[in-house]
Amino acid sequence: MSDQDQRHMAHALALGRRGMGRCWPNPAVGCVIVKEGRVVGRGWTQDGGRPHAEPQALEMAGAQARGATVYVTLEPCSHHGQTPPCCDALIEAGVARVVAAVSDSDPRVAGQGLEKLRKHGVQVTTGVLAHEALHDHAGFFLRVEQGRPWVTLKLAMSLDGRIATATGESQWITGPAARRAVHALRACHDAVMVGAGTARADDPELTVRGMGEVPQPVRVIVSRHLDIPLLGNLARTAANVPLWMCHGPEARPELLSAWMGLGAQMVACRTSAGRIDPQSLLQALGAAGLTRVFCEGGGQLAASLLANDLVDELQVFSAGVALGAEGRPGLGVLGIERLADAPRFQLVDVAVDGVDVRHIWRRSAAS
């Protein structure tokens, strides 16, 4: 693996990240075309998943693509969908070499794209910055292989792990810089998800604000009974910003009709132990096409996801304030009696957002 290959693949990965949260159910792929050491074409998966990264880069490169090297963060597709196969476009353009970070686990591709390139005389290299690419495409792979999206859980807490005072006051525990970081995180996920308690207590909009004109993520509300105010911000904006209401079989028909009339989409889920089953919830979201979900609580939904080993990344914002034992805890009941049974994550980064500290944790190798 040469330094040049790593440098150009890092460029392709950075381009691909521009599509995160905007191109589901397709993966956010980046592509760079290099001829004689100079970048002649680049592209990334566009909003809605099309066009793909490779044809955009080929269009920019034009005739210079012949004999060039193509760096792409995921194996070029080989199947006919709503667009022709990207590997065919690369072959037709006459590229000499394709460097793919990782192979595609989608059974419609699964190595066939790379094999087709080889059969047509294109040199193929894989594994360049594979670790980084596997993380970037983790949501796509999880949906293909397990039927569920990647889950990022955000917790904004006091020093002693509280998300609100005893009376429920929570705005604002963290400062403006941390809140802006949360909006950026919303923007790079397909959906923002909260539980019914948070929806009732905070009356949120769950939109991306202060980031310019960007596509809005789907708002996902997990409410077994659909007992969310019909005159709140979610109801008011349901016709303009996607809103999915995940409910149990006990939801009253009149509430289903009311939310659908407002423009919301209904997502039926199984229940267990008196709550929406988190496995059923994520399988339903995956079946609907979501690859990356940003969960903002509340405590019970967060605990349910953690207890069922369904959290892939934690984004924990800690503020320099203490609220005491009477404050509301960041997590609901987990029922853990032994430390060995507690969910564990690996620390990958620590950052300072204004006056707050952000810790980023990911699923440990053991889990």
* Broad shape: globular
Q: What is the overall number of helices?
A: 12
Order of helices and strands: HEEHEHEHEHHEEHEHEHEHEEEHEHEEEE
What's the architecture of the largest domain, going by CATH?
Answer: 3-Layer(aba) Sandwich
CATH class of the largest domain: Alpha Beta
- CATH superfamily heading of the largest domain: Dihydrofolate Reductase, subunit A
Strand order of the largest sheet: 11-10-9-8-14-6-15-18-17
Structural class: alpha/beta
Radius of gyration: 22 Å
Oligomer class? single chain
Distance between the termini: 30 Å
Q: Strand tally, please?
A: 18
Runs with pLDDT <50, length 5+? none
- CATH fold label of the largest domain: Dihydrofolate Reductase, subunit A
Secondary structure: helix percent: 25-40%
Features:
alpha/beta; 18 strands; zinc ion binding; Cytidine Deaminase, domain 2; oxidoreductase; Dihydrofolate Reductase, subunit A; 5-amino-6-(5-phosphoribosylamino)uracil reductase activity; 5-stranded mixed β-sheet; 367 residues; 2 domains; zinc
Give a short synopsis of this structure.
The chain has 367 residues and is of the alpha/beta class. It is built from twelve helices and 18 strands.
